[in-house]
Write a structure and sequence with these properties.
Layout (H helix, E strand, L loop, with lengths): L1 H16 L4 E4 L5 E4 L9 E2 L29 H36 L4 E3 L5 E3 L2 H19 L4
Antiparallel strand pairs: 1-2, 1-3, 4-5
C-alpha cells in the first residue's frame, strides 16, 4: 500500500513539475497564477524548478548628474560628456532589447500551447510550423541584437 501511495505521489509531483505556470494581474491588480491565463490578459511564464537560467544582463550603474556650469574652455569636455552619455544610453537600450529578445525566445521554447491574439481578441493557436518559424525569428533577433558590435 505504501508503494502505491509513493508511486502516485511521485507521478503527481512529476506532472506538476513539468507543467507551465502563468502569472498575470487581475482586474483588482492582484497577482494570479494558473495553467491557463484568461483571454485578453498579458501573462508571463513563471520559471519553475530546474528551469532557472542565469541572466547575463547586469544592472547598469547609475550616472551622477553633472552640475558643473559649462564655460567656453570646457566646451570640448562637454561635447565628450554628451557623446559618452549618448553612447551609454544606446548601450543600455541595446541591453534591454537583448534581454527582451532572450525572454521572448525562452517563452517560445518553454511554452506548450502558443497562441496569438486575433483582431477580435480570441486566441489563435499556432501550428507546429508556425511555432518553429516564431522560434527561428526569435533566435535571429537574439543574434542580431545581442551579438552585434555596432
Amino acid at each position: 500500500m505504501k508503494r502505491v501511495l509513493l508511486c502516485t505521489a511521485l507521478m503527481i509531483w512529476s506532472a506538476m513539475a513539468s507543467a507551465v505556470v502563468y502569472k498575470w494581474l487581475d482586474a483588482q491588480g492582484k497577482i494570479q497564477y494558473g495553467d491557463r491565463p484568461p483571454d485578453g490578459v498579458h501573462a508571463d511564464v513563471v520559471e519553475l524548478l530546474g528551469t532557472h537560467v542565469a541572466h547575463s544582463a547586469a544592472p547598469a550603474p547609475a550616472r551622477a548628474p553633472s552640475s558643473a556650469p559649462k564655460t567656453a574652455a570646457s566646451g570640448d569636455a562637454g561635447a565628450r560628456d554628451t557623446k559618452n552619455a549618448v553612447a551609454q544610453d544606446v548601450a543600455e537600450s541595446r541591453e534591454k532589447q537583448c534581454a527582451d529578445a532572450q525572454d521572448r525566445y525562452k517563452k517560445l521554447i518553454e511554452g506548450r500551447r502558443l497562441y496569438k491574439t486575433g483582431a477580435d481578441g480570441e486566441r489563435q493557436y499556432l501550428t507546429s510550423d508556425e511555432i518553429d518559424a516564431e522560434r527561428l525569428n526569435a533566435k535571429r533577433d537574439i543574434d542580431a541584437i545581442c551579438n552585434s558590435t555596432s
